[in-house]
Each structure stands twice: as structure tokens, then as C-alpha cells.
Amino acid sequence: MRVNGKQWHAPKKAFRPTRGLTSYEARVKLRADQAAMKAKEKEMKEEKEAERKARMEALKAKRAAKEEKERYEKIAEKMHKKRVERLKRKEKRNKLINS
Question: Where does the record place the region Disordered (predicted)?
Fold first, then answer.
């Protein structure tokens, strides 16, 4: 029988906070597991980003080469073939010097 007379309430038990208590070894193991998982996720993200950057660089290089080729073709329509070849070589030398 309850002391206060409210028998319709469910009987309560004393509050003992043992549910959250874990051993030190268990906490250390959990932290290590989480750190390993986080490192793996970071590695995977970096790998994915590197692949994306490589694709973008390849695309940029391809577009630049196509643009340059079109430009030389346009010049070739107006000029003599040998002069265009000389211009190409000269521009390549300038690129090497400037970079």
C-alpha cells in the first residue's frame, strides 16, 4: 500500500543512474572505433574529391587544347602553313619561358 493513498498510480522504484555507466575500457574502445571510422570517412571523401578534381583538370585541358587547335586552324586559313608552324613553335617557347 502506498503511503500517500494514491493506489491508482504505478509503483515507482528508487532512481539509480547505472544505465549510463560504462567501464573505462568500453569507453576507450568506443572512442577508438569512432576515430577509426571518422578517419576512413575522411579518407574516402578526400579520394572522391581528388577524382573529381582530376576529371575537371582533364576536361579543362581537353577544352584548352581544342580551343587552341581551332585558333590555329583559323590562322592557317589566312596564312601560309610554314608560317603557322613557326608561330606554334614560338608560342610554345614563350609558354615554357613564362611558366
Answer: 35-71
Q: How far apart are alpha carbons 78 and 38 in whole angstroms? A: 60
Given a contact cutoff of 8 angstroms between Cβ atoms, the answer to whether 85 and 77 are in contact is no
At position 90, the amino acid (one-letter code) is K
Q: What is the pTM of this model?
A: 0.52
The overall longest dimension of the chain from CA atoms, in Å, is 112
Q: What is the DSSP letter of 5?
A: S
Query: What pLDDT was estimated at residue 83?
Result: 82
CB 72 within 8 A of CB 84: yes
Three cell numbers at 75?
590562322
